[in-house]
Amino acid sequence: MDLYQQAPAFRKTMNLEMLAAYYTKNVDSEELFQGLQITKTLTYYKHLNKHNTIQINMADYIEKYETVFEGIFALSRHLIHDLQVEFPGILQNSPLTVENEPTLALDIIHQKTGEKFIFLIDEWDCVFRLKKEKKIEQEKFLSFLKLLLKDKSYVELAYMTGILPIKKYNTGSALNMFREYTMLEPKKLWNFFGFTKEEILELCQTYPTVSFDEIRQWYDGYSMKSAGHIYNPRSVVEALEEGCCQDYWNRTGGYSELEDYITMNFDGLGETVISLLGGESAPINVIGFSNDLDSFHDKDEVMTALIHLGYLSINGNEVQIPNREIQEEFASTIKKLSWGIISELLLRSRSLLQYTLQMDERSVENMLEIVHDEMQEFKEYSHEHTLKCVIHLAYYAAQDEYELRFEHTAGKGYADCIMIPRRPRQPGILLELKYNSSAENALKQIHEKKYINGFPAFVTSAVLVGINYNKKERRHECKMERIFFNP
User: Fold this and answer.
1) I want to staple 481 with a disulfide (CB 3.0 to 4.6 A). Which of 132, 217, 424, 464 is the partner?
2) Do β-strands 318-320 and 313-315 pair in parallel, antiparallel, or remain unpaired?
3) At 249, is the pLDDT very low, low, confident or very high (cuts 50, 70, 90)?
């Protein structure tokens, strides 16, 4: 038995429906799988449309009915009705009532016919998200699943999808028969959690509406434990169909808890969220996560939940915001919440870009001074990494017109930030940051290290920006130059 856990905007439901199309009896889905790799396997025809398949979306019953008890009652009634239709006469003289639940009906059918069943259950964990405070109802639901699936001779396969892992809800040995595949531990199924790079390259060739580089920047970033990177499939499909990359996450019907979670009052959580939005990674300990969405004890548990929900990706013992699409989700949430200077900074970042393109050194300095004077979210603003984070946030809106590459290999070293224009004839921007030095030295380093070689050939001009933060005087300094390539 498998439990397949993914973020809500990924394709867990699509995978489940694919399994239903492949296994279900009395349908002909061979054409659906033509040309796919599964047709090359030795057991393809052995299982194609050969199994009794029971497909259930638990959300249909947990959301629709006021209590879990009512939902389970309705599900049992519907399942028994379908079994009576599919196996006429088998249950006619059996001591069967709705109160017996479907377990008895399935057992009788198996004893009389030898038939077994595949169970495909979507949104198995919705009761723990929608009925967070209803502990008795949650226990009733777990008991229902246990009685339906555990150690039953009529079960050929049980496959469940959801957002949360199942371990926390193992009351005794209730559901210990499942093998879990999660965002933290995808194991051998990692490449089924989303599109792989190879699949994206093929899609971009077939549907050349959006470039691979744009798709990578917007939807890549989920690292599957040294196995590879995957892309959010739902958003990729929409981007290719619409011909543009943007934030499609909030259209997927996912469970938008981001606002609730990032405002939780755990020490350092707000600061960590801001640093993540600023392009930094953050250490995390996922061991203590209690596997639910309402019993958090520290910021690590909140961030682990955000991993399961797809808002963060994990690489080793560090988390980060995976791509631009999720950055947009964080930024829009922070603006909505009016997080002090951070909200103002994100709203005014477009002005900062214009000041930079106009080479208005004083206005750039003034805006950074405002940030410094009002920045309370960071306890150690006078720190080089924090300075880089603030600069990233300050130029956040530039992503609409530029691809921002931080710590980018260029010339004889690593440039702090190279901004590659998305439109021809738009000037590039190169930022070099100094700490307790001078803006002149920052510009000098740009030239000495030949960072300008990091611009692609189509860039014809660039604005070079040297920024220094003087810790003693608590002051920013900015110097700029404009250069032209291939005059």
Assistant:
1) 464
2) antiparallel
3) confident
Contacts of 164 by beta carbon, 8 Å cutoff, 6+ apart: 5, 125, 128, 129, 291, 292, 293, 308
Contact between 330 and 272 under an 8 Å Cβ cutoff? The reply is: no
Q: 261: number of CA atoms within 13 Å, CB side?
A: 26
What angle is formed at CA 135 by the lines to CA 133 and CA 139, rounded to 5 degrees? 150
| Alpha helices (H) in 228-339, listed in sequence order | 233-242, 258-262, 269-277, 299-308, 324-337
Q: Are 476 and 469 in contact (CB under 8 A)?
A: yes
* Most distant CA pair in the chain, distance: 92
Give the tokens for residue 161.
């999808």
Q: What share of the chain in percent tops pLDDT 70?
A: 87
Buried b / exposed e over 342-366, threshold 16 CB at 10 Å, is beebbebbeebbebbeebbbebbbe
**From CA 146, how far away is CA 124, in angstroms rounded?**
12
> 384 with 435: CB under 8 angstroms?
yes
**Rounded mean pLDDT of 45-73?**
93
Q: Which residue has the higher pLDDT, 16 or 183?
A: 16
Alpha-carbon gap, residue 169 to 161, rounded angstroms: 15
* Contact residues for 487 (Cβ-Cβ < 8 A; gap 6+): none
Q: Tell me, what DSSP letter sits at residue 178? A: P
Instruction: Please say whether the dihedral angle defined by the alpha carbons of residues 294, 295, 297 and 301, taken in this order, is positive or negative.
Output: negative
Rounded to two decimals, the pTM is 0.78
